[in-house]
Input
Amino acid sequence: MSLVLKGYSGTADEVEAATRARRVTIRPIDYGALGAYSHGCASATFTAGLGAAALVYAFRWHSSAGIALIRRIQISAGNTATAFTAGIVEIDLFAARAFTTSFSAGGTDKTPITNDNKRKTSGMGTSLVTQIYIANGGAISGQTATLDGQPLGTILASVPATAGTPLFPPTDIWSWSAGDSKYPLYLAADEGFVLKATVPATGTWVLGVTTEWDELLAASYF
Amino acid sequence: MPFPLAGYSGTVDEVDAATRARHVTILPNDHGLRGAYSIGWQVSTGFGSTSRANYFLFKNPSILYNIVVRRLSVSLVATGTGNGFTAVEAHYYRQWQKVSSGGTNISPATNDCKKRTNMATSIAEIRVATNAALTLGSTNPQECGAEMAWYGALSDTAAFGGCFDTQDIIGGVWSNSGPVILRQYEGLVIQSFTQNATTVRLGGTVEWEEIDPTVAPTPTW
Output
C-alpha cells in the first residue's frame, strides 16, 4: 500500500503520472525575524587617473546577532565624456575579514535605514548591515580590515579610446541563486567585502553596484 | 489516509493547496570539515600564441579530499593588434603528479578565498600566467581533450578591440547533470590561441568545494 503524504494544512501533495516525479516548490530561506534585502547605488563620476587597484565599493557586516548571506553582486560601468586611453578594465571582489573600522573618506554612505531595501515591508527587520559605501570620484579609504591575498572574483573588459563607451553591461561578479546548492558568501561579525578597480589612463567613468543579501540568525543556518 | 511529514525537529512541512507542491528550500551541499571557496584570477601582462598555450591551471594535489568545481568563468581581452580566429578551451588533465611552473602561484593560503572564515584552508594548486605560457608538471599529464570551448573572432584590427565577455565555461547553477569532480592529481587547464599571435589577457573566477569523502554524506564524490 502506498503512503500518501500531506502538508501542515492537510493538503496531500501530488506525483506526476508520466514522470512519477513529486511536485515541490522552492521557498526562500527562512530568515526568521530578520530579512532579505536588495540595494543599488551608483558612484559619482570618477576623475581621470584613478590609481591601480583602487577601492571603490564596500559592504561591512558588524552584527554578532546575525549573519549576512551574500546572494548577488552585480556591477555595471560606463565611460562618460572623457575617453580612456585604450586598455583594460579590471574589477576584483575581495573578502574583508577582521573589519574593525568602517570606511570614512572618499565615498558616500548608502547604508539602509528603516524600511530601505527590504524585499517585504512587513515582517522584515531594518537591515543590520553596518555600512555600504561607494566612491564619490576617487578611491575610498579610512577602513581597518584584512583583505584576502587573492580575490573571490575577477572581471576583465577592454575599452577603446572612444568617449561614451560602456565598460561593463550589468554583470554578476558574485551570484548565488535560490535553486543553487553551492555555498553563499557567509559574513559573520566584522566581515565584509570590497570591490577594487583598475582602469586605463585619462578616462572618466561611473560605477553602479547592486547587492542582494539575506540576514539570518547564525543558529538558523548551518 | 494522508500522513503529515515532519522534519528532524518535529516541524511539519507544507503543501500548497492549488498546485499540491511541497515546500522545499535549497541549502548548500554538506562539505563536511572542509569548505567552499572562490578565486578570481587574471593574466597580468598577457601574451599571444598561435598554438594552444596554458594560461591558467587548477589542480587537486590531495589524496585525502575531492574537489567539486561549481563554476568556472572566463573572459578574454585582446591587448595587441591583429584580427583573426581565437579560442578559449578548458581541458581536463589526469595523472598529473608534478607541480607546474611559470607565471604566478596563486594557491590560497590561510583564509584566502573561503566563503566562510571558519572553513578549512584550501588545498587547491592554482597558477596563472603572466607574460608566457605555464609549464605543466611533466609526470604523465594525461590530457583528456577540450571538454568545453569557445571559438570566435577578434573582429578589430585595433588593439583592445575584441574580447569574450565574462561567461561561464562550466555552469554557474547546476542542472541535474553530473558536476566536475577532481580527485588527486586531476585538474583543469585553460588554454587559448589566436590565429595571428595577437596578445591577449584572460581573467575569470573559479568556485569550488572540497569534500572529505569519509565525512561528507556524498561518498561517491
About this structure: Chain A has a mean pLDDT of 93. The CA atoms of residues 101 and 144 of chain A lie 5 Å apart. Chain A is about 0% helix and 45% strand. The two ends of chain A are 37 Å apart (CA to CA).
